[in-house]
């Protein structure tokens, strides 16, 4: 969600209205990360997608499945309770997106294909 979009909506909403930015593909049971949008966020170009919800882990990894430093852009991988077990009758696609990540012991992670970055406060941003 962009700050510009929120600014365009504000005049049409009740002053008590709050915004929540939620990210998650269907393969991770829809909601994976969450961020309560503040006025400070509206001064930025992009609003964070936040932190992982309870039961989820987010990994920002390079093409070698290695973590990248904060502020670097790389692909998001999601692990945890809500990650799906595979596509129905599509083992070929399932093998492409359910990945074993070295050092992660809680099952396979979903390779989202989405690029993100982590800021210095630990907030995820969709790129």
TrEMBL record:
Domain AMP-dependent synthetase/ligase: 6-88
Pfam families reported for this sequence: AMP-binding (PF00501)
Domain of life: Eukaryota
InterPro entries, per the entry: AMP-dep_synth/lig_dom (IPR000873)
Protein name: AMP-dependent synthetase/ligase domain-containing protein
Keywords on record: Phosphopantetheine, Phosphoprotein
Organism: Didymodactylos carnosus
PANTHER family membership: BETA-ALANINE-ACTIVATING ENZYME, CARRIER DOMAIN-CONTAINING PROTEIN
């Amino acid at each position: 969600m962009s700050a510009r979009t929120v600014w365009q909506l504000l005049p049409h909403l009740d002053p008590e209205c709050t915004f929540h930015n939620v990210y998650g593909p269907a393969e991770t049971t829809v909601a994976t990360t969450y961020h309560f949008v503040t006025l400070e966020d509206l001064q930025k170009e992009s609003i964070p997608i936040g932190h992982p919800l309870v039961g989820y882990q987010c990994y920002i990894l390079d093409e070698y499945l290695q973590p990248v430093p904060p502020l670097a852009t790389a692909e998001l991988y999601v692990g945890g309770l809500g990650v799906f077990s595979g596509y129905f009758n599509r083992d070929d696609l399932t093998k492409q997106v359910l990945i074993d990540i070295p050092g992660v012991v809680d099952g396979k992670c979903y390779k989202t294909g989405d690029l993100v970055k982590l800021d210095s406060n630990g907030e995820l941003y969709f790129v």
